[in-house]
Amino acid sequence: MKFSKTYTLKEISQIINSEFVGDSNFPVLGMNEIHVVVEGDIVFVDHPKYYDKALNSAASVVLINKNVTCPEGKALLISDDPFRDFSKLAKYFNPFQKADKAISETAVIGEGTIIQPNVFLGNNVKIGKNCLIHPNVVIYDGCTIGNNVTIHAGTILGSDAFYYKNRETGFDKLISCGSIIIEDNVDIGASCTIDRGVTGNTHIKEGTKIDNQVQIAHDTVIGKKCLIASHVGIAGCTVLEDEVTLWGQVGVISGITIGKKAIVYAQSGVGGDLEGGKSYFGSPCDEARKKYRELAGIRLLPELISKVNNI
């Protein structure tokens, strides 16, 4: 998330009541998670295992729970609870705005787009030309929809990321302040849910087609001309490259990449990166031909055991 103006390190420290290391006038341009940070951003880290990754990332400011040596050209915000303070910044720079009507006055709707009854469009939603938005679709604040997009009834775009820290008092939620971008010529079926990014964008690229009852989690990027069948669940920060096909009830773990033109057969569980241009099956999935040979071998086991026992 980029801020509306440049803030100083001192100003940011005052918002969260933290100490800082660096020039008080050090410029701060935004805040992001580690996988999408760029120069000028704040990133947070609260576990020693990830200190080096955060300190050596593209982020200019590291919100951290230990006073460590500050890398050259960067600044530190020292906090007893970086997770809490990152959420505090998210609330400060992207406060929740209560809706007072079904279609916000700040929503922009392109020429030729049809909005069916009972649709909700939040603040600053942008919808392109010649789209069809069916009844009971909900599009949260800040989502951007391209041209020639169809969204079927009951679909929800922009719900919060499923992102929590387990504390003794219960689960503490990381506040989402990202959004969703849907490119041109995308079709989204009925009763789908697509979560917004934590600080960046969940992104569905041009020409992708999504069936009914599909869940796509925060910060996931779906490439061009992908096919995603019913009941697929994709966890956060996943990348599907162009022309990937996921058949029904495929489950995909977070933070992986599925290569271009890969095909994953129904009811498979994807637990790691998949090379493009191949077909996969099983849970955990593997190349389909290999998996089918394994299944054929398993079917022969009772007969082989019986022969061994009769020797």
Automatic annotation (TrEMBL):
The entry's keywords: Acyltransferase, Lipid A biosynthesis, Lipid biosynthesis, Lipid metabolism, Repeat, Transferase
Species of origin: Aureibaculum algae
Entry GO CC: membrane
UniProt GO BP: lipid A biosynthetic process
Gene3D superfamilies for the chain: Hexapeptide repeat proteins, MurE/MurF, N-terminal domain
Residues making up the signal peptide according to the UniProt record: none
InterPro entries per UniProt: Hexapep, LpxD, Trimer_LpxA-like_sf, UDP_GlcNAc_AcTrfase_non-rep
EC number: 2.3.1.191
SUPFAM superfamilies: Trimeric LpxA-like enzymes
Gene Ontology MF term list: N-acyltransferase activity; UDP-3-O-[(3R)-3-hydroxyacyl]-glucosamine N-acyltransferase activity
Protein's name in the database: UDP-3-O-(3-hydroxymyristoyl)glucosamine N-acyltransferase
Source domain of life: Bacteria
Domain named UDP-3-O-[3-hydroxymyristoyl] glucosamine N-acyltransferase non-repeat region: residues: 27-91
A Pfam family: Hexapep
